[in-house]
Request: fold
Amino acid sequence: MDFFNRLGDAITGIGKDVSQNVADLTGIAKLNMDIRKREDFVKKQYMEIGKQYYELHKGETEPFFEEINLISEALREIEELKVQIADLKGKKKCLSCGAVNEGEAAYCSKCGARCESVFESEEKTESFVTNETEDTIADEEQNDTE
Reply:
């Protein structure tokens, strides 16, 4: 009987050790999760500070950080890509306020300005420049013949 009593005590002791280890591991996992939450919060605050700093200094001709120019360029590229997506979807981007309107819209639903596809406005500019250049060349040729 003594053997079974010692075996029972050993099993009970091991069970208590295992349950204590599980409790410790659970506590550690919970603490690690709390640390990650707080680290994420700090990262978000850093990002917010950076965003506010960028907004304050984006118009400077020589900003303190080169990244300000990199961010500005990336934002311009993002806008160009959004315009291309809108054009492929048959939508128009308002040149006044930037709102995206349906392709058949004549006026912006947000600000009321006349809607043109960005590509249409570029074509008009190119044709104006081309017509103006052709007119200038024709005038020069007429002056040469006189």
Remarks:
- The longest helix spans residues 2-57.
